[in-house]
Prior knowledge:
Blueprint: H1 32-38, E1 49-50, H2 51-59, H3 61-69, H4 77-86, E2 110-118, E3 123-132, E4 138-144, H5 156-171, E5 178-183, E6 188-193, H6 196-213, H7 234-237, H8 239-246, E7 266-270, E8 276-280, E9 283-288, E10 291-297, E11 301-307, E12 311-312, H9 314-322, E13 327-330, E14 336-340, H10 348-356, H11 359-384, H12 390-404, H13 409-426, H14 440-445, H15 455-478, H16 496-519, E15 528-531, E16 534-537, H17 539-553, E17 556-558, E18 565-567, H18 568-583
Parallel strand pairs: 1-3, 4-5, 7-11, 8-12, 11-13
Antiparallel strand pairs: 2-3, 3-4, 5-6, 8-9, 9-10, 13-14, 15-16, 17-18
Amino acid sequence: MNAEEPGPNTEPTDPGRGEDAGLAPSADAPPSSEASATVPTRTVVPDLVPARMVNEFVYCPRLFHLEWVQGQFASSDDVEEGLYVHRVVDQPGGDLPAAQEDTEAFAGRTSRSFWLSSTTLGVTAKVDIVEIDKDGVVIPVDYKKGGPDRHGQVHDTDRIQSVLQALLLREAGYRVTHAEVWYAQTRHRHAIEITDKDTGDVQQLLARLRATAATPEAPAPLPDSPKCPRCSLVGICLPDEVNALRAREDTPPRPRRLMAADPDNRPVYIQEQGTVVGVRRGRLEVFKDGKALASYRLIDVSQLCLQGNITVSPQAMRELFAREIPVCWFSYGGWFAGMSQGLPGKNVDLRRAQYTSAPQLLNAVASRIVDAKIRNCRTLLRRNTRAPLDRVLDQLRDLATAARGTLNPPTLLGLEGTAARLYFHHLPDMFTDHPAVDVSGFSAHGRARRPPPDPVNALLSFLYALLVKDLTATITMIGFDPYLGVYHQPRFGRPALALDLAEEFRPLIADGTAITLINNREMRASDFHQHAGGCHLTREGRRTVLAAYERRLAQEIKHPVFGYRVHYRRAMDVQARILAAHLTGELPEYTPFTTR
Length: 596
């Protein structure tokens, strides 16, 4: 991408765009007729498409589908800068005279920020500025964050949006001969002549757009396109990852590092009983007995995690919902009880695919998940035990191979159960002696819960709850129904799909964190409380575990499939999106996360 070329999604109503040719989608975009030939069509497409989504379609049909059809959106520095630049024309002002009036009498008048719609064109648009010149000609002016292309011309994506605004004004009865685009970077206006040919080109373009919108599967990603790096949806679209997984049988291309940056916001955990959480002036405030305990900028908060009896004000809940920040509820003992969020994700096609996928497809995904879990358990044992475990490692390898080759759920459950017994039997071999954490209790009990009888089980239960919490939030934001899984059977109140994806990450994230805590002697005897045959973490103990868990999620690793460096938190998001692409038919198979 050229240095001066704007990335997509730079403004809320008018993203900047790259250098395409003509009003049609660029040549590197796949024709929508191919998608419609293989994917069932939708029954309903909205009558009106926003002009800014036509802008998106010209830039990248896949981006258009993700944003308009699936309702997915992500912010970026370009988006935030565009919001700032666009603020000067976001406040409505000035009256535009009726088309029947003598507009020459209103020469010099300016109107800002108003909507126009046309059922004939099938388009709706928010016009930034409309000016009336001395001859009574109406001129729409569109504000843009970036600058013109390297030749000093209006980007084609910007041109189509201005043409649509001009055609809407013409249909409303106004005289329009040209439109203008104002670029903030150069602070200069560029005129766009409106010709009769534009009407026919727009109609053809809208027909292709509607055909794309009618298909539940998004168009294929652009191959090796310079448009991708600055696109705010690159972390959702996964262009190189999807193209690489589609080409696995051939020689897959090495993905560029297009992964969205690891987000700066992080979960906020609150354990103090009797506290009240509110919002004030863009900050999340925590109080108890009228005294402020903590304060966080809302832009720095990804989740609000509450353990025990904690109150959240209605104002705070509304603000968190508006910002798509989930509220995760835990029991005092650390069980993940549920999650509050705003409206469900708009990607109804993903949930429809999740509900209607064939049992054979779901069983194939389940077998890949179990295979990955067993292999990751084997890797953890191989890395962290000093005792000779060659026979056990061979058994786990054979169980993983057998799991990948079976589509029978009862058989799969038996293979996973056998592997789990082998793995947990040797889990204590990965711990060093620790005066505060007696691993002999785990050796005697094995993996046990409700309640966990010893410190190791208490650690694992709490870490597993945290992992399931994060995956529940992730898959819900993507658009999944977290309660319908592919391996774990639906059960009242159990996020089965989050438990499915957790299987791959339990050894790497949760078990790995427990090993680090014990072997580094970060836990103290006072961090555990034994009562009535059960062992629980104290508040200070949970605080130590939370810090270690967040450090683990922030650990950077080399992705086993794509080869770039990625944090564990981002890796979980990628896996959920790969599963979504498989269920909707975009990828031929599900590729699990395994490490060597």
